[in-house]
Amino acid sequence: MVLPPLDPRAKWSIRVVHGTSGDPLLEYEPDTQCETASIGKVFLLVEVARRIEAGTLSLDQRVAVPDEYGVADSGLLYLMRDKDLCVADMALLVGAFSDNLATNALIHLCGLETVRQVAPDLGYRDTALHDYLRDERTPELPWTPSYGTARELADVMRRLAAGDVVSAAVSARVLEWLGSNADTTLVADAFSVDSLAHLGPDYQGVQLRNKTGSTDFARVDIGFVSGPRGSVAYAVAANWKGLDTDLRVPVIDTMREIGEQIRFAVTGRAREDAAA
């Protein structure tokens, strides 16, 4: 794989690895820490799945949404009439729509300090979910909802696929929630899967599990992709905080270029070979 031109105005952290061996296929500043927006929700899902498998949390347990952690933007729950859903549905909303309100409800249920500790307990030093999601992040609040490096985030996805995050059952449950992710607009755009229905193999036999994060100064996509020729774990993060210019267009274009190389790596097929 070949690193495409990167906009030098952005801070990048990129790592693509072989899905089974973990050998690097592409990387750029993989240990640079970026703000990762919603990516840290993966660690919340790990904690929820761990409790479900341990029997300390029921799939059917209803979760109240605390007023003090009300938040809008990403997701559907803030628009819904009935907001007190069960644990399983809350986790599905987080995986499928990166739902901020469902995230806050589950963080409150598990405890923020407990969720903060998930990534360090998995051996990661520079990656974590750090805070609740907020409509406004004022100076007295924690500096970001989540942060991470491409090296550690690609490793998270590789380990989930290997069944090595807490246990095989926990890993499988997290991947099932991520399999419903409707955001395929970044790296995953190159895979051409049906954004609303890709639990099974889709275009060119590609199967995708991914999580994205977006703010007005960040785009991040982490995932595990498998196909007829193999599998790949990836993490691509870009930040441009403090710039007057919004870099989302050049950043997303670069992410798609990386995605095209990943698609070819796992399928061995050029895009024009789809009908062959």
From TrEMBL:
- Which GO MF terms does the UniProt record name? beta-lactamase activity
InterPro entries annotated for this entry? Beta-lactam/transpept-like, Beta-lactam_cat, Beta-lactam_class-A
GO BP annotation list:
beta-lactam antibiotic catabolic process; response to antibiotic
Q: Which Pfam families match?
A: Beta-lactamase2
Q: What are the record keywords, sorted?
A: Hydrolase
Q: Known SUPFAM superfamilies for this protein? A: beta-lactamase/transpeptidase-like
* Domain (Beta-lactamase class A catalytic) ranges: 22-236
Q: What is this protein called?
A: Serine hydrolase
Organism the protein comes from:
Leucobacter viscericola
- What broad taxonomic lineage does this protein's source fall under? Bacteria, Bacillati, Actinomycetota, Actinomycetes, Micrococcales
